[in-house]
Every structure is written in C-alpha cells, then in structure tokens.
Amino acid sequence: MDDQDHGRGGPALSVHGLSKRFGNRVAFEDVSFEVGRGEVFGFLGPNGAGKTTTVRTLGTLITPTSGSAEIAGIPLVPQNAERIRRRISIMPESPGLYLRLSVAENLECFADLYRTPDPRERIARALRTVDLADRADDVCASLSKGLRQRVALARALLSDPQILFLDEPTAGLDPVATRAVHELIDRLRRRGVTIFLTTHRLEEAERLCDRVAILNTTLRTIGRPGELRDQLFAKSLTVTTLAPLPDPDHIFADLPAVDGWHPDGSCGYILAVSDPAVAAPAATRALVGAGADVLSISSLHHSLQDVYLELVGTDTPADEQAGRR
Ligand SMILES: Nc1ncnc2c1ncn2[C@@H]1O[C@H](COP(=O)(O)OP(=O)(O)OP(=O)(O)O)[C@@H](O)[C@H]1O
Ligand SMILES: [Mg+2]
C-alpha cells in the first residue's frame, strides 16, 4: 500500500484500552474510542482529567503505558512516530513561539524543522487561512494573546495535516477572536480535516463537534451531544398558567404521550412526556378546553453543560484522584 494511502477509508483515530501513568499517578486509564475521518471530535473533562496527556500520547510525543491505538490507520508504536507525525499536527495549550522573531520568521523556523516542502507557499497559505497575512513582519512579542494563538494555529497548518489536535484553542480569547477560531474550524472541517478538540467551553463543543467524549481519568461517555442529552434526561414540558389550575390532575392525567406531572411553583407544571410533539398540542387543547389562561408551554432544553455536570459535577477532582492512586 502506498504510504500516503495507508489506512484510507478506516477511522482517523482508533484507540483501544489506552492508559498513561507517570510513576504511580494515573493520567488516563483504559480509554477506548474511534474518531471518523473528517469528524470534529470534542474531548471534554475537568482540569487534570488527562486530556492534554491523551493528545500528547496520540500525537507521539509521549508513549502510552498500555493499550494500543492507530493514528490515520498507522499503529502507534515508536518506530512509526515519524510516519504518524507527517499526517498530524498539534496546537498545544500554550503557543510556544519565539517571541523575539517575527510571525513569518517563526513559521520559517518550524517549516524548516518539519522539512515542509515549498515552505514559502505553505507559510503564505497558512497565514491567509488564519487571517494574519498583514501581520507577517510583526515581532511575536508585540502580538496579543489571541493573535499569538492564531500564529500557533498557522504553525499547526503548515504541514497540511489530515488530523489536527487542538488543545483548548480558544482558552482566554475574547468573543470575536473565539468566533474567528470557530470559523476556521468550520473551514477545516469542510476541507475534510479531522479535528480533535479539547475544550472547557461546553457551548463551543455543542456548536462545533459531531460527537463529544467526556473524560475524567476514565472515559465517562461518548456520543452526539443530542444523544447524550436524551440518554441522561427524561423529556419534559413546562406549562405556565396565569392562575393556579383548580384540578390539574383532571387536565393532565389522561393526555397522550404524557407519563406524569408535578407542580413547579404555584402556576407552573412540569409534564414528563414520551414525545413532546404529541404531548404539547394535546396539553394546549386540554388547558384551553378547561378555560385556563396559558402563558407558555415549552420543552425543557438540557444543554451539553447539564450532561457534563451530571456526569462529572459530583466527581472528586481528577487531580486529587490521580494523586491518591
Ligand atoms: N509530565 C508529567 N509528569 C507527571 N504527571 C503529569 C505529567 N503530565 C501530566 N501529568 C498529570 O496527569 C494528569 C492529567 O494531566 P493533563 O494535563 O493531561 O490534564 P488536562 O485534562 O489536560 O487538564 P487541564 O484541563 O487542566 O488542561 C494530572 O494529574 C497531571 O498532573
Ligand atoms: Mg490540558
């Protein structure tokens, strides 16, 4: 098989029972998952959960303690590190630029280090992609945090990676700079780049990621954000009326797709439902038929943040757990 085509068609990342320990500290343990080609995959978890260590391990910077993985179809073993690195790129938590050099000089250094073919063209293209073409001659020390982050992204793009690991790419960025990074991720997705994104911004994961995994030393869950919501939370409707209903049980008890109800304040009612699209119109008709003044009927929307808090909100902090082992 041609080296460039190795494993094409299979998953971008395939991870089986992977663990990493530092002495007796467990960074992550028995982690298994797959990421499809061209997928944007979110990797969430509290501080010390093992996200960066996972990125460093999959990126061939450190070796796992046990388990196995394939990166772009190539087995993750030390003798394959160089072949794997030709297909991936990592944008680390801190940009790590030479502050006394200009933006272009930084990229030239790294292009040289990576032995990037056609470096001038690649650098120009990477700078255009992150919208920094006009800052090429600025010294990195004079750039704001957000701009340095974008230089680091340009550096990660120099090698034209199939798989891009982004470790908290929007940490500390303002909303406009954050949106610029999100748009860039969308553009890379359209180009078919697989993106492995660690983040603490749950709304970012919900908006950008096809699937997310939640890690807290071990993998807690994995799936599409909507699926995780449905797995964890029962569907419900909230009904608010102008005045308390005299006999709510009479109205709600026999409605189709309504499994039960409980009061929420004096004029609010929460209905457990199997299908909101059936239950909401039926509840509306029943309420109007009973002469109630309805202020609102809405489905209760659980966010990815609710899922996250449900799964890790009551856990012992990962740092303490790891330290105790
Ligand atoms: N080189 C190292 N030597 C010893 N322990 C390490 C090393 N690197 C990471 N660890 C430990 O492994 C655990 C996981 O750390 P990691 O940096 O992967 O977490 P993280 O999920 O990226 O956290 P954060 O959200 O704070 O970035 C922590 O307990 C950390 O202290
Ligand atoms: Mg980290």
Short characterization:
By secondary structure, the protein is an alpha/beta fold.
Q: Your description of this structure?
A:
With 325 residues, the protein is α/β, with parallel strands linked by helices. Among the domains are: 3-87 and 161-229, 3-Layer(aba) Sandwich (Rossmann fold), CATH 3.40.50; 234-299, Alpha-Beta Plaits. It has 12 helices and 14 strands. The strands form 3 sheets. It has a 6-stranded mixed sheet with strand order 6-7-8-3-9-10, with helices on both faces. It has a 4-stranded antiparallel sheet with strand order 2-1-4-5. α6 links the parallel β7 (163-167) and β8. α4 (119-129) crosses α5 (145-157) and α8 crosses α11 (304-312). The chain starts with 12 loop residues before the first strand and ends with a helix. The site of magnesium ion (MG) has 4 residues, from α1.
Write out key terms for the chains shown:
binds magnesium ion; Alpha-Beta Plaits; binds adenosine-5'-triphosphate; ATP hydrolysis activity; 325 residues; 4-stranded antiparallel sheet; elongated; Rossmann fold
